[in-house]
Structure formats: structure tokens, C-alpha cells
Write a structure and sequence with these properties.
By secondary structure, this protein is α+β, with helices and mostly antiparallel strands. The protein is built from 14 helices and 20 strands. Strands 3, 4, 15, 16, 17, 18, 19 and 20 form an eight-stranded mixed beta sheet that branches.
């Protein structure tokens, strides 16, 4: 973390004192507070370790004065909130910033080897040093977590006093102090040694502590600890198996992010003043009642004309389900994507709207017939777009694709009417695949078989990580989805060479369903790098034709071939086929599906069966 605490000023904006007497420990970017260091995650600052606090205003929650509101009605409606808020800034102008708590509480001293709670070291105020040795304390390298999202301290005392014969702990009569040292012989767990001064147990290593049943064999289960909510939050009843994790492991915290593009009629920002009142207005059944409600809400006169309010309400009702049954979250999220797909297809000419319009999508001026041999149709130049990415919840020891509710841990102890989010602006290129040609290709037995292998493997992973396998989210793997996903990846790699943007600055957005076959590759950042114009220029048909041909030819060969092409299954849980980091995989920030469900064979075919590839004619031309 930079800058270090010693260089941080302890004053807020305009030289005023901070809103609290808590020391500042470092800085994070606002985007990181959503994607990397969100609520419940562990964050390292110099030699110290902290957990990001929850959103509640009590104790160490977010300061709403430093969390500006942002609006995106379609996403807010999906997530059941009124609005979103930017994370507090953590720069020198901030009076409060992002709140954290010390975790894990167990520390060790590298000099005297004591292993105990941080407070027991009698550290001077504001410092994390051993009161006796005056050397920096080391936070515990190990924590425990369960699949329900709870997080706790590693049970060192039980680990030391476990019985080799019965595998159970015998700590009832122990009054000794724990010690931790490293033998220095290797960097493995075998060299990390824990002992107790009680004399009842021999010195043991940490080897074996990462076994799936290591803590279960000691009779230990999850106690429902939620340290990010503070001491006032009661522990939840859990009892699930515990797993040992490295404090810095990516499995400790995984965000559940949901995003939406701002599209008309919500993309000009005019509806924002009514963000907290839409649900109320929807319950009114006539124009006169809505007009009366607006007069009550805005005593000085509504900033939005009544006709515009009625049009917005009609647009919102179009996204309601056709029947009276309550749709699942996945169905509502798919409906949100459907509306984006329709708008990307139809376009939104900039000349027809005001300067405040945040979505501009135009047809390219070139001859689109050059793309017909590739099976590509309907390219659109997205010259301006706005995306809102919201942190819905987080998971631990879980796949980000699993949307099982029992695995999602809320960001606060009590329900809130807002969620943390960030808004990004940029540009992109949207294209579709020819439906007739795609439908014929999907029916090929070899194509369907490859997609079915990935779907089965992915479904198995989702079921293994769900408490109730029958409630596991269905795998999205279909021939269409895998093709679009792999195509997006090779385009991102190609455009990173042509457009001036690095691959990590480009993102994919897939529209794959029975009635959708499109992909949007776009750049969306919180700074000016998202609007340089280099990407949108690549969407002109002549350039796009050259790019697709070059990307497909490049995907024909991988430096890891023939292993990459001929491997049976690859990736986490066998959820990829012909895909590796040398050919089609992208930085995690660019991929919607965590680099799974990829297969370049569906693009280019194999030497034995070229017909499997959708773009096989590019290679034979």
C-alpha cells in the first residue's frame, strides 16, 4: 500500500481534523474497494493485516458524507436497492476514508517467538510491535473459513494439543503460552513449528493443516464468526466444516459483482432525482395520481415533466415478467441483458440527443457486406457508454459463477437501501453472429459434444460447491456461449495490439441465449483512458474484417500445441478444452467468467475435423 503511514497527513480537507481519532494506514483506489478490497476482505498494509469493515453506519461503517450517490435504475431494481454509493476516497482530502479492523488478531514475534493475541504484546499506542523485543509483529499467516462466508482465527492451541492416536484436542488443562518459529530449512509448512510451554504436547509443524478434513478431525466446526461487522454483531449458527487458508489467498474473499449498462431512457441522468420514489410511483394506477404524488415529492415543482415520468414507468413495466410468478434472480438478470442487447442492435444516434446522453451507439459508415463471409453481422460503434458495477455480496471458498444464495455473505448486519458501486465510462464495438449460419453450426454433433463436456464439468463444480446440489445455478455453457466467449477473448488480444489499449483495460460483455448472439468488447475505466477513441475506430467493417481474420489465424496455433489443442479437459475443474494462457486466456479483469468455458477449437476446428470451427473458411481461404 502506498504511501506508507509515516508520510500520511492526519488532517482532512482544508486542514481540518479527521472525523475520528483513528490512525490512517494506507490508501486504496475507489475501484479496488469494489473489486479487490471490498467489505469482508483482508488487506495488507506494510507489516500489518486488516479486514475491511461492513457498511453499517454504527461503529466503523462507511461515512455517507464521503460516499457520493450514483444511480442506475435498472440495476438498482434488480438488486432491490434505491441507489448506489461510491466508496469513500482514501486520499489526503478525505476526512474519514475506508474503515478497517485488525485481523487476524493472532500475531507472533520473530524475536521471542511468542504466539498470542495482538493486545497481549503490550504494543505502544498506534504501533504493532512486541512490547518486550520492540520488533514488528507478524500477523498470523493462516486463517480459517467456511463456505458460508464466515472467517476466523486459526486454532493453534487445538492444533498443538491434538492427540495423534485419536485426532482430538486435549487443551482443557493447558495454561501454557504458544510459541511459533521457523526452522529455516525449507519454505514449506513442515518448517513452521508451533509449541506450547505447558509441556503436555510436543512441538508440531503446520504440515497437514491444509487438508480438507484437517480441522474436522479435531472436532472443530465453524462458529459463525463475522469479524468485519465488529464485536457487536452476534455470531451466526453455522457448524459447517472449516478450511485452513493462507491469509493472502484469493479464496479468502471473492466479490459477487453485478453490472449494467446505462441505456435509454435512463441514460441521460434526468430520472436520478426520482431514484428513491420509483417503487411508490409504480403502485399508482393513473396519471392524475402520479401527478399528485410528484407535487408532494417536489413541493417547488417536479424537475421531470409528467409525460417523461409516464414514459419511464412504461419502459420499466416492459421489463416485468409476462406472468404473475415471481422470477428468479437469474431470470431478471437475463432480462436486463436482453434490453441491452436490443438497444445495442437498434443503436442510439448522438445527433438525436442532448450532450448529457451517456449511451451513444451508431452504425458504422463502411460497407458491412465485407463481413458476410465471416458470419458476422450488425457491427455497431459504441462511441459512449456508462457501466455501473455494484458489489452485491461476497463469497469464500466458492466459485464466482455460483449464485447460490446460501453462499453469499451480506455486506452489513442489517439490510440497507444502497450498495457500494463504481461507475465507469468508455467506448466499445458490438457485433453479432449470423443466426442462420450459427444455428446450422450448433447442430453439428461434434460441436454439441464439446460444449456438453464443458457444461457437465462446470455443472459438477457448481453442485460440489453448493449446500444443496439441487439449488445450484445451471451452467451457462452452450455451443453459442462458448463460441462467443472465445471469440471475445481473441478479439481482446488482437485489439490490444491494434487499438493502443492493454488487454487488461478491455472487457467483454456476452449476449448468448436462444434469441441473442452478440458480444460487446469495450473499455470502461474511471479515468480518461476509457475515451481515447482507439477502440471504437476498430469497428469499421474493413478494419473489423481484417481484425477477425488475424485473430482467428493467430488462434489456430498456440505455443503450447499440440498439448493445448489435444488435451482432454483443462482449467479449474476441467471447465476448459483447448485454452491456456499462451493462447486465449485474458487478465481476470477482462473476463466475465473467470477464464473458464473456453475452447478455440470451436473457432478454428482441428486438423482432423476442421468443420468443428465456426470460422473454418477463414483458414481455407
Amino acid at each position: 500500500m502506498t504511501p506508507p503511514p509515516a508520510r500520511r497527513r492526519r488532517t482532512g480537507a482544508n486542514g481540518t481534523a479527521p472525523a475520528h481519532n483513528l490512525p490512517r494506514r494506507g490508501t486504496v483506489r475507489r475501484a479496488q474497494a469494489i473489486t479487490t478490497y471490498g467489505v469482508g476482505s483482508l488487506i495488507a498494509v506494510d507489516h500489518e493485516s486488516f479486514i475491511v469493515s461492513g457498511l453499517d453506519e454504527a461503529e466503523q461503517g462507511w461515512s455517507l458524507d464521503e460516499s457520493p450517490r450514483i444511480h442506475e435504475r435498472r440495476l438498482a431494481r434488480l438488486l432491490g436497492v434505491d441507489c448506489f454509493r461510491l466508496p469513500p476516497a482514501s486520499d489526503d482530502k478525505s476526512r474519514d476514508g475506508l474503515r478497517v479492523r485488525r485481523f487476524p488478531w493472532t500475531h507472533s514475534c520473530p524475536e521471542c517467538n511468542d504466539l498470542q493475541g495482538h493486545r497481549e504484546f503490550n504494543s505502544p499506542a498506534g504501533r504493532s510491535v512486541c512490547g518486550t523485543c520492540e520488533v514488528d509483529l507478524v500477523p498470523s499467516r493462516f486463517v480459517v473459513a467456511c463456505e458460508a462466508g464466515h472467517l476466523g482465527e486459526f486454532p493453534y492451541r487445538q492444533w498443538v494439543h491434538r492427540s495423534k492416536e485419536r485426532g482430538v484436542t486435549t487443551t482443557a488443562q493447558c495454561g501454557g503460552k504458544l510459541k511459533l518459529r521457523t526452522s529455516g530449512r525449507t519454505s514449506s509448512l513442515r518448517s513452521i513449528l508451533v509449541s506450547c510451554t505447558c509441556g503436555q504436547a510436543a512441538e508440531v509443524s503446520m504440515e497437514g493443516s491444509f487438508r480438507r478434513n484437517a480441522l474436522k478431525d479435531l472436532g472443530l466446526t465453524c462458529r459463525g464468526s463475522r469479524p468485519w461487522l465488529g464485536t457487536s454483531a452476534p455470531a451466526e449458527e453455522c457448524g459447517r466444516p472449516l478450511r485452513t487458508l493462507q491469509r493472502g489467498s484469493s479464496s479468502v474473499w471473492q466479490p459477487v459483482l453485478k453490472s449494467a449498462l446505462s441505456i435509454p431512457p435512463w441514460s441521460d441522468g434526468r430520472a436520478d432525482p426520482l431514484a428513491e420514489h420509483w417503487d411508490t410511483l409504480r403502485e399508482l394506477d393513473n396519471r392524475a395520481a402520479i401527478e399528485g404524488a410528484l407535487k408532494i415529492i417536489f413541493k417547488g415543482g417536479s424537475p421531470i415533466p409528467l409525460d417523461e415520468v409516464m414514459a419511464l414507468l412504461d419502459a420499466e413495466r416492459e421489463e416485468d415478467p409476462d406472468d404473475n410468478t415471481a422470477p428468479t434472480f437469474d431470470h431478471r438478470y437475463r432480462a436486463l441483458r436482453n434490453k441491452e442487447y436490443e438497444r445495442l442492435r437498434s443503436g442510439n444516434d448522438e445527433s438525436e440527443h442532448s450532450r448529457d446522453e451517456q449511451f451513444v451507439c451508431e452504425t458504422p459508415s463502411g460497407d458491412q457486406r465485407v463481413l458476410e463471409p465471416l458470419g458476422i453481422t450488425g457491427p455497431m460503434l459504441v462511441k459512449k457508454l456508462r457501466e455501473v458495477r455494484a458489489l452485491k455480496a461476497f463469497t469464500r471458498l466458492s466459485d464466482a459463477e455460483s449464485t447460490t444464495d446460501s453462499k453469499e455473505m451480506p455486506l452489513s448486519e442489517r439490510p440497507l437501501r444502497w450498495l457500494p458501486a463504481m461507475e465507469v465510462r468508455g467506448e466499445g464495438v458490438f457485433l453479432r453472429l449470423d443466426e442462420d449460419r450459427l444455428a446450422a453450426w450448433e447442430k453439428a454433433p461434434a460441436v454439441a459434444a464439446r460444449a456438453e463436456w464443458m457444461r457437465t464439468a462446470h455443472q459438477r463444480v457448481l453442485e460440489q460447491r453448493a449446500d444443496d446440489p439441487s439449488r445450484a445455478a445451471p451452467s451457462p455453457a452452450t455451443p453459442r456461449m462458448v463460441l462467443l466467449h472465445t471469440l471475445a477473448h481473441v478479439l481482446v488480444n488482437e485489439w490490444s495490439l491494434e487499438s493502443g489499449y492493454p488487454a487488461a483495460a478491455l472487457r467483454e460483455r456476452l449476449y448468448a441465449a436462444d434469441d441473442m448472439a452478440g458480444v460487446l468488447v469495450y473499455t470502461a475505466t474511471s479515468d480518461s483512458a476509457g475515451s481515447l477513441g482507439g477502440l471504437v475506430a476498430q469497428g469499421e467493417p474493413e478494419l473489423l474484417d481484417r481484425t477477425v481474420r488475424s485473430a482467428v489465424l493467430r488462434a489456430e496455433w498456440c505455443s503450447s500445441d499440440p498439448l493445448c489443442m489435444e488435451t482432454g479437459m483443462s482449467g479449474a475443474g476441467g471447465t476448459n478444452l483447448a485454452a491456456c494462457h499462451a493462447c486465449v486466456m485474458l487478465p481476470e479483469t477482462s473476463c466475465e467468467h473467470n477464464n473458464i468455458l473456453l475452447d478455440r477449437v470451436l473457432l478454428v476446428g482441428t486438423p482432423e475435423d476442421p468443420s468443428v470451427g465456426f470460422f473454418r473458411q477463414v483458414l481455407t481461404a
